[in-house]
Amino acid sequence: MIVDLRSDTVTKPTQGMLEAMWSAPVGDDVYGEDETVNALESKLASMFGMEAGLFCPSGTMTNQIAIKCFTQPMDEVIADETAHVYRYEGGGIAFNSAASVRLLNGDRGRLTAKDIEPHINPDNIHYPRTSLVVLENTVNRGGGSCYTIAQIEPIQQLCRKHSLKLHLDGARLFNALVATGDNPKDYGRLFDGISICLSKGLGAPVGSVLLGSKETIKQARRVRKVFGGGMRQAGYLAAAGIYALDHQVERLQTDHEHARLLGEALEKQNYVQSVMPVDTNIVIFELDLRLPAEEFVAKMAANGVKCSTFGHQMVRFVTHHDVSSEMINYTLTILNQ
Ligand SMILES: *Cc1c(COP(=O)(O)O)cnc(C)c1O
Questions:
Q1: Which domains does the chain carry?
Q2: Of 28, 111, 301, 310, which alpha carbon lies 20 to 30 A from 145's?
Q3: How many Cβ atoms from other residues are within 10 Å of residue 263's Cβ?
Q4: Is the CB of 60 under 6 A from ligand 1?
């Protein structure tokens, strides 16, 4: 048996999803004529109570477009030091937006208004102008930690007080929504931009959607073209996203349950030093010093379980649509042997 716990990006479309893609009505989306893309964008926008959406090839692109729309060159962006927008987008904030980043040290990647406030620069020519705060939910490097709406409210109030924009890297926002039971419309109310990945836990093959006001998305559409992200008959891909939203959201609960089982088993192993709390579909753990992460990952791979090293002595497991309960049981057997 092969169990792929490296990432929730490895899922393949189901038969039902392929049929939805196959039969999607399409057109040229750069002309705004692809009705399936338009349907996906408005479906997500109305789910979150936002005015408009923009379908893009990747979550990196939706994040980078949002940052470009919400900053001017020489501005500063506030984010947690673990943030995907900073760590895993190839230095895109500097390259695309000519902005600097102020990195804070949150609780498993989660920031509070109190963390942020002292780092908002005063209006003084020595300092870059703080213009944007980026939050991530769930936090990848935080072991899938999530915010609740109650935790985000004070951050939004702080941003409004200082005229800062607030963007959400919601690559795994649906995992957070399923875990907390929060209402998506509250997210739409609090954020100026929201990026949602369809190709993570939702199980679509490609794509992310940026949500925002009509004005933001109009500008975002311009930036997407400049970034080379204007796609033509993209409805075939958007159809997979619509299918995922209709059929593959509630089942995220199963991924969370699977992750919890893995976390509990790891807690009991003498070769494991510590396991981060498991809130959603990500399990990050630290190995005992005698067992290097590479060695553990190689041993698991030899038994058919693929996982990723995640820094010094650290390993990450991610559960997803294509990991069945049988596969989890098999993995538990390997861990316990
Ligand atoms: C995966 C991911 C993204 C987007 O990544 P792409 O590979 O560009 O789609 C953004 N933020 C987080 C937290 C992610 O995990």
A1: 3-9+251-335 (3.90.1150.10), 11-247 (3.40.640.10)
A2: 301
A3: 20
A4: yes
The rounded Å distance from CA 171 to ligand 1 centre is: 6
Instruction: Give per-residue pLDDT as tens, 219-244.
Output: 999 999 999 999 999 999 999 999 99
Alpha helices in 162-306 (DSSP H): 173-180, 184-190, 214-226, 235-247, 252-267, 293-302
pLDDT at 311: 85
169-187 pLDDT tens trace: 999 999 999 999 999 999 9
How many CB atoms lie under 10 A from the CB of residue 322?
14
9 Cα to the center of ligand 1, angstroms: 9
DSSP string, 127-149: SPEEEEEEEESSBTTTTSB---H
Query: Maximum distance among all alpha carbons in the chain?
Result: 62
Q: Name the token pair of 76.
A: 């500063």
- Choose which residue among 6, 141, 169, 202 to substitute to test ligand 1 binding: the one with the highest number of ligand atoms within 8 A of its C-beta: 169
